[in-house]
Write a structure and sequence with these properties.
Distance between the termini of chain B: 58 Å
Helix content of chain B: 55-70%
Strand order of the largest sheet of chain B: 1-2
Number of strands of chain A: 0
Distance between the termini of chain A: 106 Å
Strand content of chain B: under 5%
Radius of gyration of chain A: 32 Å
Number of domains of chain A: 2
Mean pLDDT of chain A: 85
Shape of chain B: globular
Structural class of chain A: mainly alpha
Largest sheet of chain A: none
Number of helices of chain B: 17
Number of strands of chain B: 2
Low-confidence stretches of chain A: none
Shape of chain A: rod-shaped
Largest sheet of chain B: 2 strands, antiparallel
Radius of gyration of chain B: 21 Å
Number of domains of chain B: 1
Order of helices and strands of chain B: HHHHHEEHHHHHHHHHHHH
Strand content of chain A: under 5%
Oligomer: heterodimer
Mean pLDDT of chain B: 79
Number of helices of chain A: 8
Helix content of chain A: over 70%
């Protein structure tokens, strides 16, 4: 009798525990299942969040401020605008000198070559390479650590834009080679004979510049 | 009558209540905080003159077996305890380079994430010991509770010290430590940890006698204050896109919400401490139906693991940033 009473009492005592455990476990199971379902959408949410923040997915570094399209375009413009202005000045000077002063015209062409090479080097520093990416990450991390804004130099081009930038650099180098050859002309007549070929090379450069400006949604520089 | 007496789950319960298996309902399963193993043994010897050695689990017995290591003999549980205890050092290890180079920027930016999260992890590990004893009936890992408690205190003190020196809040050291309500919660937690650390030794346990256990229930108060701290810090909601492990979000803002992580972990730790639940588990154990316990508890444990993984994820990411002295301010 005592053991029966005890048995019933024991069952009653453990019933509350069973109910608590069952209910909490059921709720926990629902939460875990909901969490797993939610986790399946991680990739899509990540892309959406990156896009909403205007970040370039290929340049996204978890835990660090992202590189936006605006930053990329600004950096490209910061390189291309002064170079284009400089080139325009040198081309204008060459146009004045090509018919009357061989030495001055050759100096203008040499200056163009230097400007082109500087532009190529600057642009190459923004392309998507392991070295550039590591340098950019270091700049972003330093800025984050010190609480300062991310410098423009930390913005590098995406792999897609890098393909166009590489083509632009190649076209520019071809033009620079031609200009260097033109600058070695012994006479004004021979000097001017290069003009047609230089125009074709310049057109190739312009085509690549328009493509890159379109890819970056940046205004194409005049010149 | 029986319902009024049998339901008690205290040290004073009569041994005749045989449905309460002694190793499960013994003193250690209650102790929340920094109980030293030697102290446990002393108290058990005082209160229970005939210890129930027969109830010792087979794993416990296996762990007690000594083996030769170098020139000495050590128990099997020693390396297991070291391996399980080592991760608790990781938060402090992460901050070591910044401490050596006295990099105040790293301390100012990320010490709260690295050591604060580290203290939270150690607290949960400390609180996990009792439910694991309840579930497994094993006791060989009980010394870890004290170790995790000490490491929680070390992380909390480190966090408070660095915050008091390097934070940018106005009002001097006190302003930096308790100038905001969420900070005040953290400061109170640190203050509450002090008596636990000071009395987390056999000598203090002997001197304090029955008050020792009451004092060490402060760990539950700290657990509660941590909830308040996180509510004030993060709120109940989550920010879309900016609450992940990156500025643009990693697509998991809910998983990175610290209050949700805390809640997911706490449910398991809390439910397994409730006396009716412990009684139910003890009864199933006596019936030899532990499979039922495991099946029932599994979702709760899965939820705990779910929450805990993301706390550890936070610790690793922020900790590595601190270790490389490029702290993430996010």
């Amino acid at each position: 009798m005592t053991s029966e009473t005890y048995g019933i009492g024991s069952q009653e005592q453990t019933a509350a525990g069973r109910v608590i455990l069952m209910v909490s476990s059921f709720l926990a199971a629902l939460l875990v299942i909901a969490g797993l379902i939610y986790a399946t959408g991680t990739g899509a949410r990540h892309k959406a969040a990156v896009a909403a923040a205007g970040c370039e997915p290929s340049l996204f570094i978890s835990g660090l401020p992202c590189t936006t399209e605006q930053m990329m375009a600004s950096r490209y413009e910061a390189i291309v605008t002064p170079a284009t202005q400089q080139l325009n000045t040198e081309i204008a000077a060459y146009a004045v000198n090509e018919r009357r002063d061989l030495a001055a015209a050759e100096a203008d062409l040499s200056a163009e070559v230097v400007t082109e090479q500087a532009f190529d080097n600057s642009l190459a520093a923004t392309t998507f390479t392991p070295q550039n990416r590591a340098a950019a990450e270091a700049l972003i991390q330093n800025a984050t650590s010190s609480g300062t804004p991310v410098p423009l130099a930390a913005a590098i081009l995406t792999p897609q834009v890098t393909v166009i930038a590489d083509a632009l650099i190649q076209a520019n180098q071809a033009r620079a080679t031609l200009l260097a050859e033109q600058a070695r002309s012994p006479s004004l007549i021979q000097l001017r004979s290069f003009n047609r070929r230089v125009q074709v090379a310049s057109a190739a450069v312009q085509t690549e510049m328009k493509l890159i400006a379109k890819a970056l949604d940046a205004p194409s520089p005049a010149g | 009558m029986a319902r009024n007496t049998v339901g008690r789950w205290t040290d004073e319960r009569p041994a005749a209540y045989d449905y309460q298996e002694v190793p499960r309902g013994g003193q250690d399963t209650h102790q929340p905080g920094l109980m030293p193993d030697a102290g446990v043994a002393t108290r058990q010897a005082e209160k229970a003159p005939a210890p129930k050695r027969a109830d010792k689990s087979r794993v416990d017995e296996w762990m007690e077996v000594e083996f030769k290591f170098g020139g000495s003999r050590i128990k099997r549980k020693a390396p297991a305890l070291i391996l399980l205890g080592l991760p608790a050092l990781v938060p402090l290890f992460f901050m070591l380079p910044a401490l050596i180079t006295l990099n105040s920027n790293t301390f100012a930016v990320s010490v709260d994430d690295t050591l604060g999260t580290g203290a939270e992890i150690c607290l949960f590990l400390c609180l996990l010991v009792t439910p694991m004893v309840t579930l497994t009936g094993q006791r060989w890992f009980v010394p870890l509770r004290r170790w995790y408690g000490i490491m929680m205190a070390a992380c909390a003190f480190g966090d408070a010290t660095a915050a008091g020196i390097t934070d940018n809040f106005a009002g001097g050291v006190f302003g930096r430590l308790a100038g905001h309500v969420f900070e005040l919660m953290g400061f109170i937690m640190v203050m509450l940890v002090i008596p636990l650390v000071l009395t987390g030794n056999p000598w203090a346990q002997r001197k304090l006698g029955k008050y020792w256990k009451r004092l060490h229930r402060l760990i539950y108060v700290i657990w509660g204050f941590l909830a308040a701290h996180l509510i004030l810090l993060e709120g109940f909601g989550f920010e879309r896109g900016s609450n992940g492990s990156g500025f643009a979000g990693d697509g998991d803002p809910i998983f990175h919400q610290r209050l949700y992580q805390y809640s997911a972990c706490s449910v398991f730790l809390l439910v397994l401490r409730l006396p009716p639940v412990k009684r139910w588990i003890a009864a199933r154990h006596k019936e030899g139906r532990m499979w039922l316990v495991w099946v029932t508890v599994l979702p709760l444990f899965a939820l705990f693991v779910f929450g805990f993984i993301f706390i550890v994820n936070e610790e690793i990411f922020k900790g590595l940033d601190s270790f490389t002295e490029h702290p993430s301010g996010e």
